[in-house]
Amino acid sequence: MVPIAYYLLLAAVLFSIGIGAFLIKRNVITIFISIELMLNAVNLTFVAFAHQWHQVSGQIFVFFVMVVAAAEAAVGLAIIIAIFRTRQTLNVDEIDLMNS
Amino acid sequence: MNSMPANYLWFIPLLPFAGFLINGTLGRRFPRSLVSAVALLFTAVPACLVAWLWSTMLGTGAPDVLHAATRPWISITGFNVDLALAVDHLTLIMLAVVTGVGFLIHLYSVGYMAHEEGYWRFFAYLNLFMFFMLVLVLAENFLLLFVGWEGVGLASYLLIGFYFQKRSAADAGRKAFVVNRIGDFGFLLAMFLLIVHFGSLSFSQVFGAVAAHPEWHGAGFLTAIALLLVLGAAGKSAQIPLYVWLPDAMEGPTPVSALIHAATMVTAGIYMVARAHVIFDQSPAALTVVACIGAATAIFAASIGMVQHDIKRVLAYSTVSQLGYMFLACGVAAYSAAIFHLMTHAFFKALLFLAAGSVIHALSGEQDMRRMGGLRSRTPMTFLTMSAGVFAIAGIPPLAGFVSKDVILYQTFASPNPIGKLLWLIALITAGITSFYMFRLWYKTFFGELRLGSERDPGNAHVHEDEHDRAQAVHPHGVHESPWIMLGPLAILAVLSVVGGWIGWPAAFGGSDHFEHFLDPVFASTAALHGASALNADQVSHGLEWGLAAISVLVALGGWYAADVLYRQRPGKSTQLAMRMRPLYEVLEKKYWVDEIYQSFIVLPLMMMTRGVLELIFERGVVNGSGRASAMLTRGGAWFVRRQISGNIRSYAGWLALGAAAVLAVMVFGHSLLVHL
Q: Pick from B241, B273, B418, B421: which is nearest to B338 by CA?
């Protein structure tokens, strides 16, 4: 059996990559993908712990997260398309209307 | 008459205070007659109360000490101070001097200040002074005495600076205040020591404790307390090294000089030493210091007084010198002699100042004796009364000054103190100088020709024109006798200066030493300690007393003769003499440069310290700097935080991540960190 630490380590690495990409990348879609990456890193820990403690609630949480992520992807992609239509760019640094 | 209820004692100080409140708040709107009526009423009634008190205390079966009902004032664990008044025979004398002379001077002021601006202010301050002075002499503990002590200092400051628009007057007021603060510092420390060692400031408790422990004789802490009290007394009573404020205090109106700076306030130090005589008796070292300070001050100030030209300054230095006599008397444990001289001095010095005021009044504000002269015929009443004062202070028998000074001289000579004879010699020389400068003043003012018209000496920058009588200058140079309201007090004081000494006429001259016996209950412990020998000596050495008196009279007459030769018979001679002894004359004329020495060795370094260290480093550096630094910190922090609101989504996310990481770190490592701490 693979020790839980490995799962957690993998999840941490995935999450860090997600954060790094979120902070560094400028393309909205890439940022979006990095958010998905972080979500899945969290999912991975949930599943790992559920497996470790033989508790099903962790897996149920993962389903919820997936559902929310799917909905979020739909809404987010719609927003991205709307942004692209109005501003002709996907660079977040140029999307700064709210900046005082 | 019925005896006075002890609680009426409270009225004695509080009535002048009421007068102060009335004149101080409403006086501005009152007509002058009402202002003076209020001021006079509220000093006359306490004077009557004091008279009643006298008859009570002298009645048969009256207690030696009368206590008024007390009220707790400060009450903390192990330490209590009451608002307590008490009267014994010493206080009685002081009360009589303060209210009696005080009332006469109030009366005089009505005439003297008649044309002044700020009439109501003057009388309000004068009543305030009376209040504090009466608190001072009535107090039953050191703290209440200190309240009066500070209060008279305040009143003195206000009255010296009465003409506050004149720079020199304002400066003189400040100088008096600051110099007095130095003395007060000593007084405060003495009180702290008293609290530490006795846990009380009440006279009866402290003195009772000291009296109960004869083994404390010469103990270090008693000497320390006594010396600190001496520092306080030296400030208030203008003794070396703190006498410098008194000559400058002559910037105030002349009645103020008479009341505060001659008759009453400056004697507070002597009163305090006499009051604390139980402590001083146990500390021979402190007593010797007191005697030396007194003798040194007496001759030092008298020598300066010889060459002053301002009539009030001569009297001021004379006051310092006479206060030195009183200190000397205290220093040889002859407290009753000191108080006796205090009383007679109050009479004749108040008289001299008031008469000088009358002269100044007559000459429309002129104070320089070089421009006076020949006033004998023009102001005959002033001349007569002032002559009484001059003869009294010069020590011509049988006037008051002779009697009291003679007692001091005799007590000094007879004291067991090893340097008693030397102190006596100094005091004797001082008596001669006193006689000389007083007759010099007398001749220059009242004899010869009036020199008012002559040109002012251009080299003399020290002419202190009293602001007084700018209004009077309206009738220019009409030399006039003063009104009766000024002459009345002069006449009464002149009579007192003549006969005031007779109540203490020494036994050696067929008297009964009544004054000394009157104070016996107060100074009984002293008599028990030293007096056994001294009092017996009284009985056996009348011959000695006669001899000493004869010497002092001869010296006084010698001083008179010298003044007579120099200022009447051969008027030009004094200038010649001054030219011949140029260096000596200059030293005296410049008052030994004491003011200059203080200026360069104390005031200047202090100012440099203040400006350089305190202002530059502390005020600008620490105080202002800390304010500025905190402002900069806030501004910098705000700038940094503001920069974060950039609208840049990734920087927000970065902060969010950083915050989450920080929370995580605290959750994971915080516990172990706390354990280590």
A: B273
pLDDT of residue A99: 61
A contacts of B643 (beta carbons < 8 Å): none
Query: Beta partners for B279?
Result: none
pLDDT tens digits, one per residue of B239-282: 988 999 999 999 889 999 999 988 899 999 999 999 999 999 88
The conformational region for residue B34 under phi > 0 = left, psi -120 to 50 = alpha, else beta, is alpha
Does residue B335 contact residue B523 with C-beta atoms inside 8 Å? yes
Chain centroid to Cα B104, Å, comes to 19
Look over chain B and give the mean of its residue pLDDT values, rounded to a whole number: 86
Q: Retrieve residue B139's tokens.
A: 């107090």
Q: Which DSSP helix (H) or strand (E) runs through B81? A: strand B79-83
Residue of B nearest to A98 (CA): B647
Distance CA(B231)–CA(B183), nearest Å, equals: 5
Distance, in Å, from the CA atom of B400 to the CA atom of B389, rounded to the nearest integer, reads: 9
Tell me the domain boundaries of chain A.
4-90
Q: What is the pLDDT of residues B71-122, one digit of tens each?
A: 888 888 878 888 989 998 999 999 999 999 999 999 999 988 888 888 999 9
pLDDT tens digits, residue range B279-324?
Answer: 998 888 999 999 999 999 999 999 999 888 899 999 999 999 999 9
Burial B57-82 (b: 16+ CB within 10 A, else e): beeeeeeebbbbeeeeeeeeeeebbb
pTM greater than 0.90 (yes/no)? no
Which residue among B647, B653, B654 places its CB closest to the CB of A98?
A: B647
Q: Is the dihedral of CA B206, B212, B215, B218 positive or negative?
A: positive
For chains A and B, count residue pairs whose Cβ atoms are closer than 8 Å: 19
Q: CATH for A4-90?
A: 1.10.287.3510
Domain residue spans in chain B? Answer: 6-452+463-589, 596-676
Nearest residue of chain A to residue B645 (CA atoms): A99
Which amino acid, B39? A
Q: Is B653 on the interface with A (CB under 8 A)?
A: yes
Per-residue confidence (pLDDT) for residue B290, from 0 to 100: 93
Which uninterrupted H or E stretch holds B86?
Answer: strand B86-87
pLDDT exceeds 80 at position B572: no
Residues 6 or more apart in contact with residue B275 via CB below 8 angstroms: B90, B145, B203
